[in-house]
Amino acid sequence: MTSSERAYVLGTDQEELLRLGTQHRLWAESALRLWERAAIRPGERVLDVGCGPGFASRDLAALVGPAGAVVGVDESARFVAHFTREAASQHLDHVRALEGDVHHLPDLLRGHAPFDAAYIRWVLCFTRDTERVIRGIASALRPGGRIIIQDYFNYQGSTCLAPRAPVFDRTIEAVSRSWRDSGGDTDVMGRVPGWLLGAGFRIDHWGALQRCARPTDTMWTWPTIFWKSFLPRLVESGHLSAADKAEFDAHWARASADPAAWIALPTVFEVIATKAE
Ligand SMILES: C[S@@+](CC[C@H](N)C(=O)[O-])C[C@H]1O[C@@H](n2cnc3c(N)ncnc32)[C@H](O)[C@@H]1O
Questions:
Q1: Global confidence as pTM
Q2: Which residues does ligand 1 sit against, CB inside 6 Å?
Q3: I want to staple 115 with a disulfide (CB 3.0 to 4.6 A). Which of 35, 47, 155, 175 is the partner?
Q4: Residue 244 CA, ligand 1 centroid: distance in Å
Q5: Which residues pair with 205 in a beta bridge?
Q6: Which domain holds residue 93?
Q7: Total number of domains constituting the chain
Q8: What is the CATH classification number for the domain harbouring 267?
Q9: Residue 265 in contact with residue 27, Cβ under 8 Å?
């Protein structure tokens, strides 16, 4: 296990890898809609920043086709190895992953041709110096290149179970605090427009996706698999007591069987911005 594997708050084990695959399926439609809005097209070179095991990268590869290229960057050696194996097994010769910290994009991408677009989803909420990451992406793009971001703001306020339950609210507070304690920010999208403008981007699109789910909905799976993989880590890190986790698990099991329950999922904010010509 590398040091980045140990440090990354959500972990990089097999359970998290599978969770990222399910998560991508559940959110693939909104990603595709955003890529279409940003006019990703055949022949383009796209950078997938914090690509994880490459679920979004492989969809992007289908959009840019063999005349284009997708380069993913992630600090997890395990995710990069999975990415590389999958790309090879699908004969995606125009797709590759680089292992490294997204705070060091100019070094990692030295020798690479400029990119037409960069996609970064659910990564900036984990980075310690997000302004630096955005500046690094700006330097990797050609003039007129687009940055496409999906991430959180007001995570704690927007994630609610109905009817309300104090243990749910305590758990969401613990999630948010644990990300902050490891250098992240569940409010990161609040500051992204300022950083984009400061890095010379023009903001073309700003929007929000507010999803909710009832227990019988496919989308109920998203929070369910997140609690399963992440709450044990929260107990391990001391952000959540074992008693609260047990109470939370029992409450979630009851809510999952309650046709009157529903959940407001964390709002995902999205932006498309263009680097000055
Ligand atoms: C929640 S996952 C999202 C993965 C992918 N972007 C997606 O939407 O499916 C966050 C990813 O960011 C990566 N990551 C977090 N901080 C990083 C850093 N400083 N440098 C490189 N990768 C990082 C993690 O390894 C993980 O794969």
A1: 0.97
A2: 8, 10, 20, 24, 50-52, 55-56, 74-76, 79, 101-103, 121-123, 126-127
A3: 47
A4: 28
A5: 272
A6: 3-275
A7: 1
A8: 3.40.50.150
A9: no
Structure tokens at 94: 């125009």
The ligand 1 atom nearest the CA atom of 10: 1
Percent of the chain scored above 70 by pLDDT? 98
Please write the tens of the pLDDT for every residue from 199-252.
Answer: 999 999 999 999 999 999 999 999 999 999 999 999 999 999 999 999 999 999
Name the closest-CA residue to atom 3, ligand 1. Answer: 122
Token pair for residue 174?
């613990």
Q: Helix %, strand %, coil % for the chain, to 5? A: 50, 20, 30
Average of per-residue pLDDT values in the chain: 96
212-213 sheet: strands from edge to edge: 160-162, 262-264, 212-213
**Which strands, in side-by-side order, build the sheet including 95-99?**
95-99, 69-74, 45-49, 115-121, 141-152, 268-275, 201-209
pLDDT at 4 over 70: no
